[in-house]
Amino acid sequence: MYYRIFDCWRLVAAMLIMAYHFLFWAPYGVETGTHLLHRLMPLLDMFFMISGFFITTRYRDKIGDFASYGRFMRGRAARLLPLHYVITLFFAAIALYAWAKGAPHYPWRHNLEALPAHLLLLHAFGVTDGLALNYPSWSISAEFFAYALFPLIVLLLRVGGLKALLVAIAAWVGLLEYASANGWFGPGGWTTADAMGAYRALADFMIGAAVAIVVERRMIDVRSHLPGCLATALVVTAMLSGLDHAVVMPLIVSALVLTALAETARPESTAFLAPLMPVTRVAFGIYLIHPVMEFIFLEVVWYHGLAGTGLIGFYLYWWLPMIASVAAAMLSHRYFEPFCARGLLPPRPSRRKAERMLASA
């Protein structure tokens, strides 16, 4: 089953997050634009929920022992880590260059101090002083925390079913609320955590897993896309209105459930979105790569070159790093990531060998 609508949502979220980060370089309209887009930050929670949904749907029945768990983690590493490490080392090289040049305004010390945590995937656990290097990659650290604990979610579902998972979600969220009340996550609380975002992501991931079970059991028979579209519209309205996470999060869950129910009931109903899939499937790449394009096109070319020359307006120019981010993500998905996967994953048996194995079974 291919969830085309969820892939479209992830692409839109990645593009909006990229636009939000790029807006900080604008000569005017920064406060208005960033304030508006910052209200859409719960889209990050949607990212993690969809991840929990997909992982549960595809791997819940495939993990039963340490060997299968190892294959699962190896597959996840092959999918996410090469791009993360390449971009992290890119920014580490920039920091070393800034240190060698004695650049007074570049945070090279802050970035280099954070390098070990980035390499060990610990930078979403509060071990660094804020975001550094490839700053969106805190979500990779958070994702791997959820992946590492995924067998516990599988165990909960096998032993106690959906009720056990819902109890675990309630307990974890309650613990996060208690920690927030005691100032552990800072002024924004756990719902806005990034450098400590692993704990937030686990809650979202578990919620996505619960959504997968609800959809699989078809606990509500929804076949029309209208309820999901209405729920999605409510989510966007609630975010733009600045409503609290306690309101926005249940709306996101409702939108996910209603949308997935409609698409699983009538997969052919989203066939018209198929031409967009080559772009939607690179949302992860756009999310990770756009800081590189931000550095090249906005910090180097724009800030140190074009800004103030009057040769081109910012809001026309900013399409260039956006297009470059999408293009680089598509090239990475087509060439770099498969190349790395071939090196990290065991080779698949040839068709003839697979047929011999089946015949002898």
TrEMBL record:
Molecular-function GO terms, alphabetical: acyltransferase activity, transferring groups other than amino-acyl groups
InterPro entries referenced in this protein's UniProt entry, alphabetically: Acyl_transf_3_dom, Acyltransferase_3
Alphabetical UniProt keywords: Acyltransferase, Membrane, Transferase, Transmembrane, Transmembrane helix
Domain of life assignment: Bacteria
Gene Ontology biological-process annotations: lipopolysaccharide biosynthetic process
GO cellular component: membrane
Domain Acyltransferase: 6-331
TM region positions: 9-28, 40-59, 80-100, 138-157, 164-185, 197-215, 222-240, 246-264, 271-289, 301-320
Name of protein: Acyltransferase
Organism expressing this protein natively: Jiella avicenniae
